[in-house]
Specification:
It is a single chain. It is globular, with a radius of gyration of 20 Å. With 391 residues, it is an alpha/beta fold. A hairpin with a 2-residue loop joins strand 2 and strand 3. Helix 6 packs antiparallel against helix 10 and helix 10 packs across helix 11. The longest helix is centred in the N-terminal third of the chain and has 25 residues. The strands form two sheets. Strands 1, 2, 3, 4, 5, 6, 12 and 13 form an eight-stranded mixed β-sheet that branches. A five-stranded mixed β-sheet has the order 9-8-7-10-11.
Length: 391
């Protein structure tokens, strides 16, 4: 059994920085063994972060600006990859990068395209290592949504007889349902996206740190009702969404329809309650016996309290089960790269809606000839997380 050292990189829909993780991984029969080695987050430079946010709809982006963004994000990811190699003890076998999603093209119940930027060649040139990237597009080409890909990790990690729901609250919130005949996953709607937007609009802050603004207010029930009257929430799974939909225009329409001002604290309290309500509604509809939460939202005590109040089942943070909440998506990226490296599918069709399992991504060679291992012949059925000290 060989252990592979993998660096996983991504920047989520919050667009605030690059999550970096280093991990050792091995195939052991039907199990994938995972030992996290370290993780961190590198903030985007302020000007690059603003350029990314300005590029989102309804902003416009010409080819020259897109080329510059793709290059600058690729260079930022290259710097992050170098840190990841250090976390791995100075040596790694390959890098996996989910890049920065800039646009996710969905019409009705179909995903028609998806765009992640952050040129992998900059990562390969900086580290000398092979890079597995563009991990969503093949799933979309196979009639899937390309998101949420977390279903493959959650199904391997939490699979069992009892129905459990894994929730990730990033800019967009998504869930994975395990315990049924096959896993099911979909985006429930905004996670932190509208909360961060309102915090920035009203106070100039990038986020509502520790839910302090929300804690100072009371949810506006009329505004909450308007926000919940959004057709996306009633769509059947599989489905995916992004900031193309849940953005400033979306919030402005609801506030305009409300027809009266809402103070800062009440607005943040309402948007926090919106995220809790939509996530809780989805968990309840799927018959969850237990809910396991990860992502940046776990650091918002107001949001977690609202979620627990709306559910009558245990709500845990993934740390309680040995999965680091802050680096879970970066570990997902490393896992997806590991599967591709071994010739294994990286999607779970029941979660994304793809026509079948597909090997995901493209590989950019490092400084030396690309040498892949023999393709694995046994599909993995479990993910076992071990501490770095465990042999």
């Amino acid at each position: 059994m060989r252990w592979w050292r993998v660096v996983g990189l991504l920047s989520g829909t919050s667009m605030d920085g690059i999550d970096v993780v280093a991990a050792e991984m091995a195939l052991d029969g039907e199990a994938i063994l995972l030992r996290p080695l370290g993780d961190t987050t590198l903030d985007y430079p302020a000007d690059l972060r603003e350029q990314l946010r300005d590029a989102l709809p309804p902003g416009e982006l010409d080819a020259a600006a897109l080329c510059r963004l793709d290059t600058h994000v690729g260079q930022a990811f290259a710097d992050a990859a170098r840190v990841g190699v250090q976390l791995a003890g100075g040596e790694a076998d390959f890098i996996a990068s989910l890049g920065q999603t800039l646009y996710h093209w969905v019409e009705g119940d179909r995903a028609l395209g998806t765009l992640q930027i952050g040129q992998p060649s900059w990562i390969a040139e900086t580290t000398g290592l092979p890079v597995i990237s563009d991990l969503r597009t093949r799933d979309v080409a196979a009639s899937g949504h390309g998101a949420p890909l977390a279903g493959v990790l959650d199904a391997l990690w939490l699979g069992g007889a009892e129905t459990q729901v894994a929730v990730n609250i990033g800019g967009i919130a998504n869930i994975t349902v395990v315990g049924g005949p096959e896993p099911l996953a979909y985006d429930t709607g905004p996670g932190n996206a509208l909360i961060d937007l309102a915090a920035h609009q009203r106070t100039g802050r990038a986020q509502d740190t520790d839910g302090a603004l929300a804690a100072s207010g009371t949810p506006d029930e009329d505004l909450l009702k308007l926000l919940l009257d959004e057709p996306y929430y009633a769509l059947p799974a599989p489905k995916s969404t992004g900031k193309e939909h849940f953005n400033a225009a979306h919030l402005d329409r609801a506030l305009t329809e409300l027809g009266r001002p809402v103070d800062d604290g009440d607005l943040l309290a309402t948007l926090t309650e919106l995220t809790a309500a939509t996530v809780a509604d989805a968990c309840r509809a799927e018959g969850a016996h237990r809910v396991v939460v990860s992502g940046g939202g776990v650091h918002n005590p107001v949001l977690l309290a609202a979620l627990r109040r709306r559910l009558d089942v245990p709500v845990l943070v993934s740390n309680d089960l040995g999965m680091p909440a802050d680096s879970k998506e970066a570990l997902l990226t490393a896992l997806l790269g590991f599967l591709t490296w071994h010739g294994l599918p990286g999607n779970t069709p029941g979660t994304t809606g793809a026509a079948g399992p597909r090997i995901l991504g493209s590989i950019t060679p490092g400084r030396t000839a690309l040498r892949l291992p023999e393709p694995a012949t046994t599909p993995p059925r479990r993910l076992i997380v071990r501490s770095a000290a465990t042999n």
